[in-house]
Design a protein that fits this description.
By secondary structure, this protein is mainly alpha-helical. It folds into two domains: 61 residues, no CATH class; 109 residues, no CATH class. The chain is built from nine helices and no strands. Helix 2 packs across helix 4 and helix 8 crosses helix 9. It is elongated and about 55 Å long. It starts with 12 loop residues before the first helix and ends with a helix.
Length: 194
């Protein structure tokens, strides 16, 4: 079962590879195809059936489909709420980024503690540095004025789109850390309640 598709934005190459490693003989392309099928509203049972026909373990195949389904559902709740908002009239995109970042910090602080939120963000930033090395230069505590003051200069240096993608990767990683700790359904409820 090999296909030349790119993974959807909510999945990513590294996650597709990690999920395929959990369930030989599946490969990343199988996971990517499954992700596209789930995004196309194909029933999860049909996707599990594809994995079984490829020789995957039934329990692991079901777990991978559940993980893909949760990732797909969390993407709109977790990252797109941050990106869908538009800046208030007269404010900059950076002000919107600051607002969204503060909402994420507040959510993580309520869930853990301020120190726990800081730790989660540091780990999320570390993980995002693989694809976006400049993230290392962003402040992990942008609640200070200096944290957000660097964003416009960073956007000029790496490009606003790259900065947006890097910050989005941090958001996505932070939510993945939370999801790994408390599970998909609870994380989704937290995001919907925010």
């Amino acid at each position: 079962m090999s296909y030349g598709q790119l993974p959807p934005p909510w999945l990513g190459d590294s996650m597709a590879h990690a999920l395929s490693a959990m369930c030989p003989p599946l490969i990343s392309a199988d996971i990517t195809r499954a992700a596209h099928r789930l995004a196309g509203h194909v029933a999860p049972a049909c996707v599990v059936e594809d994995f079984l026909q490829a020789g995957a373990d039934p329990v692991t195949a079901r777990q991978i489909v559940e993980a893909l389904d949760a990732l797909r559902e969390l993407a709109p709740a977790g990252v797109k709420w941050a990106l869908a908002a538009s800046p208030a009239e007269g404010s900059s995109e950076f002000a919107l980024g600051e607002q969204v970042w503060n909402e994420l910090v507040e959510l993580l602080s309520r869930l853990t503690s301020p120190a726990g939120a800081h730790s989660i963000l540091l780990r999320a930033m570390y993980l995002a540095q693989v694809d976006f090395p400049f993230v290392a230069r962003l402040s992990a505590n942008p609640a200070t004025a200096a944290g957000f003051a660097s964003w416009p200069a960073m956007a000029a240096e790496v490009g606003a789109d790259q900065l947006r993608q890097g910050v989005t990767a941090v958001f996505r990683n932070a939510l993945a850390i939370v999801r790994a700790s408390i599970g998909g359904p609870l994380t989704a409820r937290l995001m919907q309640a925010r």
